[in-house]
Amino acid sequence: MTELFSNTSATLSTTLVFTVALLASLLLKFWLASRQVRHVAQHRNSVPAAFADQITLSAHQKAADYTITKSRFALLELAWGAAVTLCWTLLGGLSLLNQLLLGQFGNGLVQQVALLAAFMVINSLIDLPFTLYQTFVIEQRFGFNKTSWKLWLQDLGKSSVLAVMIGLPLLTLVLWMMGATGAWWWLWTWGVWMAFNLLALLIYPTWIAPWFNKFKQLEDPELKDRVTQLMARCGFTSKGFYVMDGSKRSAHANAYFTGFGASKRVVFYDTLLQQLTPAEVDAVLAHELGHFKHRHILKRIVSMFAVSLLGFALLGWLSQQAWFFTGLGVAPNMSGANDALALLLFMMVMPLMDTFLGPLFAHMSRKHEFEADAYAAVQTGGAALSSALLKLYQDNASTLTPDPVYVKFYYSHPPASERLGRMQSPQAAI
User: Fold this and answer.
1) Which CATH number fits domain 215-275: 3.50.50.60, 3.40.50.2300, 3.40.50.1970, 3.30.2010.10?
2) Per-residue confidence band for 137, with pLDDT thresholds at 50, 70 and 90
3) Is the pTM of this model over 0.90?
């Protein structure tokens, strides 16, 4: 009787904590998004004084409208996401799906793989209307979407093939290890997961990315010479300089330094090269090199290793607790509880923790961006970097007047006012 009371109490406590955390997360995100909408709307009709000579009122208002539209749409997504999470957990959706698949496949690895696959397919279908609206309504309205329906369907098909060819075998291996490697399964599984992530960094630039986009060697001799000299000056080597046809999907511009070891390459969006001068392209690339100079990539990988290790250890413990299943809506008799259920429940609980830990990681990311900016300003001059960043803010319709509290929680990159302000004294941020 005492054990039954203890289990019931633990179950109720788990349900209560989960419900409170879900509600608190939802309310916090609603409050932050509402602040962002109000703040941007209040400053919509006047360009900040620091940018008055460089940004037109119409461009400023477009950025404000784009930000407000996306923020309001995010509120709807938040509410829908919370409702879906409740349906999967406390309202018994995941338990029902598990029982249905148990009837089809019985207990075992096949049933668990089928449960994970079915959950992901159903969730993708549930999220599909939001994805389509974001791409073909919001992005289209503001002139950013270049994706055709044909291309979108091709991307969907390719992503599905990759999920089946890579994702499904990986999940099968993880589930097998969870059941076959004993009490320390979480440590062995963590090792396999990290090895996969490192392998993905190695093969993505040369094997996966070209399946979705065309990459061609940078042909502009002047720009190529400038970039080569910059790389040499900064002490970096690369497998090559490539231009990606990003314009076939979006008008947004970007550049990135990807891969590691022999697979490192510099990639410029064609939209970026159309918008920036050679000196500004130099500055953007120097910023990316700054991340490597300050070992931000390595630090992020180490952080990912540490956080994921803690996550796997926590999952290893929770998967052995009956209240973790019953408190989150799985049938009390536990006849259908398995490793796949533990993994899925954990995946739905973790985002609630991310809500409250997010500001810490966002702060670290902004700090890294300041350091990379400072490095680029030293290598190429602050003027070129400032003008490049301002063009990118304008072309991507990034608001110049975000809510300061919202920035602290969500912004991985500093807002324009802070970022360009630091450019006046780059040495202070090194």
Assistant:
1) 3.30.2010.10
2) very high
3) no
